[in-house]
TrEMBL record, chain B:
Pfam assignment, any one: SBP_bac_1
Main localization category: periplasm
Keywords tagged on the record: Signal, Transport
Compartmental location: Periplasm
The protein, known as: ABC transporter substrate-binding protein
The keyword Transport is assigned to this record: yes
Keyword Kinase: no
Origin species: Kushneria aurantia
Signal peptide range: 1-22
């Protein structure tokens, strides 16, 4: 359910920008030519948009509204329609002590876990992605091959790669421990997925391994479109390459990087599969999606689980809006 | 290209649709150890006998995940699965989705079975599942290593700790640096609830999570004592990785010769004694240790039953399959081939069964007096109770909380879950 909602947020966001774009297109040119043409254009635009809006309403809007509704009932998975309206009791209620999601320390821990996971993994992916893209942008023999090979982690289904990693990280038989022991870096095998202080890093490592190619791909595309004259000018002026990177390359690839980051951040905020396969429901890596699923499916509490999904949706929407706002302002100021 | 692919795709769809129609029934079986092969073999025998075809689907190994899957399928009123293998703690929860087998089976169908399991599977007078195999936790140990160090089979958890320490130190000195004293099921899932309840119930007078009257009783001295000892095992006699082990991970370590003791279900017997096992003929099985001198051995009741979904299109046929799979012949075959505990008392006196699995005779009392989890009294809220319990135990084992502190928190958490009543 969370996934669907998330898809809804990003789609709605995309939809809104598209609409604004079309509106602008319809508005600005040749306004003085009278409103008839304009009106016809607007009508045509809506006509073309209609199928998509209908589909969106059916696959994203309806489930979202339904989840909102369920979050204010006490429905259970075995009797979905039997739920009674209970207002906001799933969120917070006082009954000789505070109850509800907002009063559940586990929920707040999963919010914190999710934010921590997102911040660390996406930062690492952005940095590593740019480095990988710069390397692949250089001319060397076998470049095409490496570029294709780089995409393999991104191409493997997450459940499969998470399971592979689970074996590699196994405390007794895992190859990672074997190698670290062989190199003398550790003197006893680490239990990557069981040790609460390591398990978050284990899932971050796997996520970074998987998603770095995605960031690298988008950045590489941007790198290939860069105008060569800036670089020639810099070369003539004898500017240090590091300075060139921060002053020329980075600002020019920033739009692509920001897009890559927002995609990754949205994915990371609703992360489920990689963590569920590696550490199941363990508290130290529980994310908002895992919390919502546990309530919805394991505890059969559709009302409470929907409330968690709704909060998850709101948190992601808020972060997205703030990010887009800041991103746009910075870009606006830069140009 | 597309045009050429289309007919091929169409053929594929038709072919798979044809296949789906060919199977009259679908049964979901567990896949822990040799479970799936045994299930397939049993189903194949019924197919040959009845002329109907059955599709066997495997389900996740973790009982917690399996329950979620069933609840999703049943919640959607799907007719995809006709016969479900359900845990002994689930009948109350799943009863609304299951048929009353009394309506499809002869009246004396349950007379030869353990009455306690039949009662467990009867919800409001409806027989919702037939007992397939029962389970109780047992202690596996390495005979050869205990002999080598001149140690007795431990009767208490304290003795187990001592013996494990001695042997572990000795074996590590002898060059096996990956050797551990004790492995069990420590992942935050239903299996940890079972393990921890066995510790707690083994102390004098036996601790409980929720008593038969529905009172929350987890904040008891037995529990604090048991959890404190268990927490001391981690990184001492048990690898830290045990905190992410289920049954099969524990067996992996034990069967490859890297552990002295293992807590597991009887199914592991057949596998540790198999041709591929590194420790074949060096393994013994006894009742789990007691909690101190005055304690008693406590094994938690496990076991699986076969139920028929209410949304099945062929309930009569499905009930016949259930009757066949739970029949004495089939249970005997499963006991001999896979060391699955029969649910028929008579089979515990069968010579062929006892020859294959000697401890079915010596541990008969353990199996018949196993302690149930508090699923009957907590009803629909059992998954939450179990979840709160295993999460707390997991925190204590991880060293994030002291036992007493964790139990205080758990007591109020359970009160929150109970609300105005179970």
């Amino acid at each position: 359910m969370a996934t669907r909602q998330q898809a809804a947020t990003s789609d709605v966001a995309a939809d809104m920008t598209d609409r604004a774009f079309l509106q602008q297109q319809a508005d600005s040119p040749r306004r003085e030519r009278g409103t008839r043409v304009r009106r016809r254009r607007v009508r045509a635009a809506w006509l073309f948009l209609a199928p998509m809006l209908v589909v969106l309403a059916a696959v994203a809007g309806w489930p979202l509204v339904r989840t909102f509704w369920f979050s204010m009932t006490d429905a259970s998975l075995s009797s979905l329609e039997g739920g009674q309206f209970i207002g906001l009791e799933n969120y917070l209620v006082y009954d000789n002590g505070w109850y509800g999601i907002m009063a559940d320390p586990m929920w707040w821990q999963s919010v914190w876990n999710t934010l921590y996971f997102t911040l660390v993994s996406v930062s690492l992916e952005a940095v590593l992605g740019v480095i990988v893209a710069l390397v692949l942008n250089a001319h060397f023999r076998g470049r095409t091959l490496v570029r294709a090979a780089m995409l393999i982690p991104w191409a493997i289904p997450t459940v499969v790669s998470a399971k592979i990693w689970a074996w590699m990280l196994n405390d007794q038989f895992g190859i990672i421990n074997h190698m670290l022991l062989g190199l003398g870096l550790i003197d006893a095998p680490l239990s990557w997925t069981a040790d609460a202080s390591l398990s978050m890093w284990a899932v971050i490592i796997v996520d970074v391994w998987k998603a770095t190619p995605f960031v690298a791909l988008l950045v590489l595309a941007a790198l290939q479109m860069l105008p060569s004259d800036c670089y020639e000018a810099a070369k003539v002026d004898g500017i240090h390459p590091v300075r060139v990177f921060f002053r020329v390359t980075l600002p020019l690839i920033m739009p692509a990087l920001l897009v890559a980051i927002i995609f990754r951040a949205l994915d990371a905020l609703r992360v489920f599969d990689v963590i569920y396969v590696l550490t199941s429901n363990a508290a130290s890596t529980m994310t908002m999606s895992i919390y919502a699923r546990q309530q919805l499916v394991e505890f059969q509490d559709v009302g409470y689980g929907s409330a968690a999904s709704t909060l998850l949706f709101m948190i992601i929407a808020l972060i997205t809006v703030v990010y887009l706002y800041i991103g746009r302002r910075q870009l606006g100021g830069g140009s | 290209m597309k045009a050429r692919l289309l007919p091929a795709g169409f053929l594929l769809v038709v072919a798979s649709a044809g296949q789906a129609q060919a199977a009259d029934l679908t049964i979901s079986c567990g896949a822990v150890g040799a479970e799936l092969q045994l299930c397939q073999a049993g189903v194949a025998r019924w197919e040959a006998q009845s002329g109907h075809s059955v599709e066997v689907v495997s389900t996740p190994n973790s009982a917690t995940e399996r329950l979620s899957l069933y609840q999703q399928i049943l919640g959607a009123q799907s007719s995809d699965i006709d016969v479900l293998q359900i845990d002994v703690v689930w009948p109350g929860m799943l009863a609304p989705h299951l048929v009353d087998l009394n309506q499809y089976l002869p009246t004396n169908a349950t007379q030869d079975f353990f009455q306690s399991i039949v009662d467990n599977n009867t919800v409001d007078g409806r027989l919702v599942a037939m007992p397939w195999f029962t389970d109780a936790g047992v202690l596996y140990y390495r005979k050869d290593l205990l002999d080598k160090y001149g140690l007795e089979v431990p009767a208490t958890w304290q003795q187990l700790t001592e013996a494990a320490r001695t042997v572990q130190a000795g074996e590590r000195e002898a060059g096996n640096s990956g050797f551990w004293g004790y492995v069990f099921q420590g992942r935050a899932y239903e299996g940890l609830t079972v393990n921890a309840l066995e510790w707690i119930a083994s102390y004098p007078e036996g601790g409980t999570i929720v008593n038969d009257q529905g009172d929350i009783t987890i904040d008891n001295p037995q529990a604090a004592q048991a959890l404190t000892l268990a927490a001391s095992w981690i990184n001492d006699i048990s690898p830290q990785g045990v905190l992410n082990y289920t049954e099969e991970e524990a067996r992996g370590v034990f069967q490859s010769g890297n552990a002295l003791f293992m807590r597991n279900w009887p199914y592991a017997w057949d596998l540790v004694q198999s041709e591929q096992s590194d420790i074949r003929d060096n393994v013994g099985v006894v009742a789990l240790p007691a909690g101190g001198e005055n304690g008693q051995s406590a094994a938690v009741l496990g076991g699986w039953n076969l139920a028929v979904s209410r949304y099945s299109e062929h309930p009569q046929l499905a009930a016949e399959l259930v009757a066949f799979l739970t029949s004495p012949e089939e249970q005997k075959r499963r006991a001999i081939d896979g060391s699955y505990n029969p649910t028929l008392p008579a089979l515990y006196q069968d010579e062929e069964v006892l020859a294959a699995v000697p401890f079915f005779g010596t541990l008969y009392n353990t199996f018949t007096s196993a302690i149930p989890r508090p699923s009957a009294v907590t009803g629909d809220k059992y998954p939450r109770v179990s979840n709160a319990f295993f999460n707390t135990v997991h925190e204590v084992l991880s060293g994030n909380t002291e036992a007493q502190q964790g139990l205080d928190g758990l007591q109020s958490e359970l009160r929150r879950i109970k609300g105005r009543g179970w």
